[in-house]
Amino acid sequence: VKGLQKWFPLSRGFLQSSRFVRAVNNVDLIMRKGETVGIVGESGCGKSTLGRCILRLIEPTDGEIWFNGTNVSSLSKQAMHKYRRNMQMIFQNPYDTLNPKHRIRKILSEPLIAHRVPKEEHETLMVNILERVGLRKEHLERFPHEFSGGQRQRICIARALILGPELVIADEAVSALDVSIQSQILNLLQDLQEQMGLTYLFISHDLSVVQHISDRVAVMYLGEIVEMGDKQSFFQKPLHPYSQALLSAVPKNDPDENRERIILQGDLPSPTNPPSGCKFHQRCHVAMEKCKTEAPLLKEVEGRQVACHLYA
Ligand code: SF4
Ligand code: MG
Question: Which one of 31, 56, 237, 289 has the minimum C-beta count within 10 Å?
Fold first, then answer.
């Protein structure tokens, strides 16, 4: 992902100057085959918009998306539709995304029909994928309401994987589930990743979930990536003050660990009118004078990328 931007127009009046919500601003992101990149940040920081732009479920305002050597952002709508079997999304709420009037058979056959998979292959593909996610052939004839929340998310995962994608973007995929069910689904996603060679972009506001599943972590703040690095070093020693504040709010594994809680001041500023300089300066516990005027660039620090003047 190169220089990705998504600005939503707020008003389009004839004589009004257009105002924009700058949901995603100049994001660069490299993902390697088979890895899981976790994207974290408060709600409203642009994580979901980034995920949807990568799949072109919404069109980016600017920037490029390359996938296995293809510039996906330049494909026509029609070509993109074909391409999308390689790139699928799993959403937060399995209650909303499964049509209650449709049997599982119909729900799972929809992507097969949309991508013109020959009819005689459907049954085998549906049964195979159901078994992979821990369900059975008999479940094909049931309706979504006959399943528990965790099972419904398994059905959503089956629907996303039935065409054999390479990249899966999971947007808060376990956030609606009970904690005990969350770990089952996370473990399932990890098993499927290994069996099917999947690459995950895992979007979540929940740092413990991201810690469980990710190889690398990117932190977003007001539409930008402010820190990115491998999981171990990130969780041991977050470098960006915003990452430090987010992590300090996570319950500690070791009660003796000496970690101060850093309280974030105020709310997330409006992405319509973002602060000057470092966009985090009004809430930062170590802001300096120059942070008010100069925007820090993402730079290599201790093998990671960080956008903060502390590491000049
Ligand atoms: Fe805080 Fe300044 Fe770093 Fe921004 S650039 S995170 S305000 S220290
Ligand atoms: Mg979101």
Answer: 289
